[in-house]
Predict the structure.
Amino acid sequence: QVHLVASGGGVVQPGTSLRLSCAASDFTFSDYSMHWVRQAPGKGLEWVAVISFDGSNEHYADSVRGRFTISRDNSKNTLYLQMNSLRTEDTAVYYCGRGTGSGSFLCNYWGQGTLVTVSS
Amino acid sequence: IVMIQSPDSLAVSLGERATINCKSSQSLLSTSSSKNFLAWYQQKPGQPPKLLIYWASARESGVPDRVSGSGSGTDFTLTISSLQAEDVAVYYCQQYYNSPITFGQGTRLEIK
């Protein structure tokens, strides 16, 4: 059973930064790509970013490219999302997910999310 | 790639068929693999998404066989053959053909 627990959300002001973490367990973390997806209150799903199994490749949604950075620490089984220059439109529940393979764009497990609220 | 689902919401009687459509702005069919890079997810309130279908028609482990996916190229369909109460949810299609990965806007499925 794959376990993914996102944390680090909170209430922040526009223009500030926040780092989310996703602790992974019960699978070999270093074998899989990892994703972040978000969901604004009452809205649909929006994919945010993906990182390959070894951290060598990253892809971003246009809405966050240049502001957000996805990274991972395979020694700690942890995925990160560094969010800079936050905007009110970044307010959402952020979910981390596991890809189906080392560089896969398909995600087959999602953990419970963490809420980020950007407000002045 | 833009993904458009129809309808936005759907009410179906218990035991009846539910059909959700998804159209992509470009083909999701890989000529090299002959696979369509299209997935369907189910999301219930307060929960993360759950993968139902991948490669347009492959059912994820544990998904009941009343749930099926079909289509190729740019037009895809999710069908629930006999609606059960536990199927009430929002359903999303997603393309994973290339980056940025994109979702449809979602279809809310309810009991009539």
